[in-house]
User: What shape does this take?
Amino acid sequence: MKIALVHEFLNQLGGAERVLENFLKIWPDATLHVIFYDSKKTHGVFEPARKKISYLDKWPLTHRHPKLFLALLPKVIESFRFDDFDVVVSDSSSFAKGAKSRGKLHICYCHTPTRFLWTNDEYLGQQLYPAPLRWLGQLILPAIRQWDFRAAQGPDFYIANSVNVQMRIKKYYKRDSIIIPPPVDTEFFHPEESKEDYFLVAGRLEPYKKTDLVVAAFNDLGLKLKIAGSGTQLSELKKKAGPNVEFLGRVSDEDLQKLYARARAYIFPAEEDAGISIVEAQSCGIPVLAFGAGGALETVISGQTGEFFKEQTAEAIKQAVKNFDSTKYDPLKIRRHAQQYDKLIFQEKVRKFVEEKYLGFKK
Assistant: This one.
């Protein structure tokens, strides 16, 4: 069974890329089809893989200003050919599901229906186009939204990464799906006996991540906060932060494991579809204080592995931290909860699903 993997943009290492990395563990001989590829920004993780990179990757400005080329991306993703493959597996947050399998079995692992097309929120307003170019979005997005719905009818089967995403796949694309949560290396992310007196935030520093709310809360609390990660908000957040807030920049996985394991708690202020970092933290045995929406509701058990704050505000975060009592949590119980998301369980579920569907497809 020859597998073609399809992914949109390999220019960062986030949750979707971790899923893709696990697909390559299942099918090490698969060929990876991507629109853009940046080995440096993905830290060489995908260098050993066979790759077919789109013609757009070599165009001037596409890496620096990819949003200027949004209108071209449907045609680019449709240009990939899969004549020599048996199965197409797309790892999709936006365009990858639109790959035309042309009679081959196509299974889509969907991280989210395309957010900038279907979610009218701050992520769309702040992340897609700056104010001087908003007119460009108003011009092209309606047509891309129509394409996105049509493209979503192409895959034969969908795998959603959470109940939250499953419901939105049904709402926006009118498609059914099964759920296989994204993988975490629970052997690597393990507890340690050594503990320190700080709270932790980790991830990309972008507006939709709401790290600014945590900084504001800890400015008032005066408690020690460590922030691991980088992004467009880094300099702005540094200016706002008090001396009790430490910015670590991007850290290695080895350092991240230690940061999780030694923290009092992990704070997750964003509304996300899955939130792999929530499970990584729990795998290290530490409780999570999360905004009570999205995928966090599926991965945190209130009172057992963490707590929720009901409003996405600095005041709500401040109250959650004030009320937090680390002595009520059992690190081993927290870790056992996280182990159901282990990468080996994920790999086996995905392998079994694809093989079953391929056998049925051949008949």
Notes: Residues 122-126 have pLDDT under 50 and may be disordered. DSSP finds 14 helices and 13 strands in the chain.
